[in-house]
Design a protein that fits this description.
The protein has six helices and five strands, in the order βαβαβαβαβαα. By secondary structure, it is of the alpha/beta class. About 30% of the residues are buried. It is an enzyme of class 2 (transferase). Pathway: Cofactor biosynthesis; coenzyme A biosynthesis; CoA from (R)-pantothenate: step 4/5. GO terms for molecular function: ATP binding; pantetheine-phosphate adenylyltransferase activity.
Amino acid sequence: MRLAVYPGSFDPITNGHLDIIRRGARVVDKLVVAVLHNSQKTPLFTVEERTDLIRRVTVDMDNVEVDSFDGLLVNYIHKRNANVILRGLRAISDFEYELQFASMMKKMDEEVETLFMMTNNRYSFLSSGIVKEVAHHGGDVSDLVPPLVDEALKEKYQNS
């Protein structure tokens, strides 16, 4: 079975992420969306909130699973017996980082392949950081995130 892991912070998940998930799920047998717990960052949403939001927006995708991890991605890949890492590329500016990332993964485990998918042009500018910035200042992000994420953002910023 071709098992791929799509790692990220997903704070929050955007329509760009969802596009990569939908398309990635079509080319592998199973796709695990793995939410990174990074103790060096303070996310807007907890790991539990992020995994819940992703589960809810991917509920219609039978071969998508949502999980979380901390530490090295290569260790998580081994734990899950995965053989593919799915990564999205928005623009040429992403390429340098992603090349370094893929090269380091290959150094740590030559059996793991990194699959890059170009983001749909509609989402080439989109990042979770931009979404949070706009939402924080009361801007409309309803066409950038799934509706339940839009509601979760409004609730977070009303209560902060």
